[in-house]
Design brief:
140 residues; mainly alpha; elongated
Length: 140
């Protein structure tokens, strides 16, 4: 292959990956973030109940404490229930979807705005040196 490395080989040989795999905190954080993203995407399969399905709600389950059987139905909920009998764990898992969507939308919108601003600046004939004079190293 003429001595050229593929993109994957360059990534594995990069300083970023070297530092990443030697930092236990970074690896644990990465696993947690990936787990939360997968939980948000797969909420229909991961959550014990659908908290937004009115047909599955039982008002008799309202205010059930965590990990205790309900006095009327005998059901147990890991994080308990709210006043309408919705499982709080399921509500949190389904809420991850909304949080993920809002976060990704904000980042995408900001990046597209920054790209548009940069494009406008480039068409005004300004170079990076003109836009960011403090970044120029004039020690010669």
């Amino acid at each position: 292959m003429n001595g050229e490395m593929s993109a994957w080989q360059r990534f594995l040989a990069s300083d970023f990956f070297y530092d990443f795999k030697r930092s236990p905190v970074t690896i644990v954080s990465f696993v947690i973030v990936v787990t939360l993203i997968l939980m948000a995407i797969l909420a229909d399969f991961v959550a014990p109940t659908n908290p937004f399905d009115p047909g599955s709600l039982n008002l008799m389950n309202g205010f059930t404490p965590p990990m205790e059987p309900n006095a009327f139905t005998g059901e147990t909920f890991m994080l308990g229930t709210d006043d309408q009998g919705r499982d709080l764990l399921s509500a949190i898992i389904y809420g991850l979807r909304v949080s993920l969507f809002v976060g990704l939308t904000a980042v995408t919108r900001q990046q597209s705005q920054a790209d548009a601003d940069e494009h406008r600046q480039d068409h005004r004939g300004q170079t990076d040196e003109q836009r960011y004079p403090e970044a120029i190293d004039d020690r010669r």
